[in-house]
Amino acid sequence: MPNYYALIPAAGYGARMGNQLPKQYLTLAGHPMIYHATRTFCESPQIKRVFIVLSPQDPEWKKYDWDVFSDKLSVFYCGGETRAESVFNGLNTAAGHFAIESSDWILVHDAARPLLTQHQLSQLIDELADDAIGGLLAVPVADTLKRSGADARILQTESREHLWQAQTPQMFRYAMLLEALNNVPELSITDDASAIEAMGHHPRLVHNKSDNFKITYPQDLALAELIMQQRNQQ
Ligand SMILES: Nc1ccn([C@@H]2O[C@H](COP(=O)(O)OP(=O)(O)OP(=O)(O)O)[C@@H](O)[C@H]2O)c(=O)n1
Ligand SMILES: C[C@](O)(CO)[C@H](O)COP(=O)(O)O
């Protein structure tokens, strides 16, 4: 039976958040944002180990006490210039420390998606466990889509049929993901599935809810805080 590993890239700067502190360390419900995704994976009985990929210059992680997760957590200071490079470096570093098999599953999840629930995580794992390729959580596009020119005037309305917004976790076999990322020129892609697609594969989209959104702008953080408060009251 394959093992399931989580890899959380957390080496970004959060430029669009516009805060001096990288967004994965901004406070959300009393903890640094990265705590929430880390907790979800560490508390999942299906996940064997959780790899956190930080920037080599990260001064923040060590300011917090992570002992509660110590039985599952490994932290690597090997992040790169792009998300894909951070994932690629993390996969290589993890293999230097643990006996990861080619067919083991890797679930790559943004540190900036703190609202992933146990239910969403297990649904992804269960739906893809027997899949030949793997896949990701995603949400069908809900709004009407407009394509514009550089002047923000509409050129045309695009059909939203069969269009999805990619979320994470993105779940692929270790060897396939490593090979896919190794083949991507300059690791310029924005998600893991893109690398798998570039090899000619068709990853599966697992229908999820929009509450697993990525914290990109300040208003996203405020909304996440409200959702967490609401969940804690239930
Ligand atoms: N060189 C990078 C860039 C991003 N990430 C991680 O990839 C995830 C998703 O990326 P994104 O939301 O784009 O984060 P940032 O790159 O930090 O944000 P921005 O693009 O606004 O700078 C985040 O957990 C981020 O820390 C990473 O590990 N290494
Ligand atoms: C993988 C991802 O979450 C897909 O939505 C990703 O982090 C996207 O990064 P982006 O640069 O904000 O598109």
Automatic annotation (TrEMBL):
It holds the Pfam family IspD. The keyword Thylakoid does not apply. Keywords: Isoprene biosynthesis, Nucleotidyltransferase, Transferase. It catalyses: 2-C-methyl-D-erythritol 4-phosphate + CTP + H(+) = 4-CDP-2-C-methyl-D-erythritol + diphosphate. GO terms for biological process: isopentenyl diphosphate biosynthetic process, methylerythritol 4-phosphate pathway. It comes from the Bacteria. Pathway: Isoprenoid biosynthesis; isopentenyl diphosphate biosynthesis via DXP pathway; isopentenyl diphosphate from 1-deoxy-D-xylulose 5-phosphate: step 2/6. Its EC number is 2.7.7.60. It is an enzyme of class 2 (transferase). The record marks 16, 23 as: Transition state stabilizer. The record marks 160, 214 as: Positions MEP for the nucleophilic attack. GO terms for molecular function: 2-C-methyl-D-erythritol 4-phosphate cytidylyltransferase activity. InterPro entries: IspD (IPR001228), IspD/TarI (IPR034683), IspD/TarI_cytidylyltransf_bact (IPR050088), ISPD_synthase_CS (IPR018294), Nucleotide-diphossugar_trans (IPR029044). CDD domains: CDP-ME_synthetase. Belongs to the IspD/TarI cytidylyltransferase family. IspD subfamily. Catalyzes the formation of 4-diphosphocytidyl-2-C-methyl-D-erythritol from CTP and 2-C-methyl-D-erythritol 4-phosphate (MEP). This is 2-C-methyl-D-erythritol 4-phosphate cytidylyltransferase. It comes from Nitrosomonas marina.
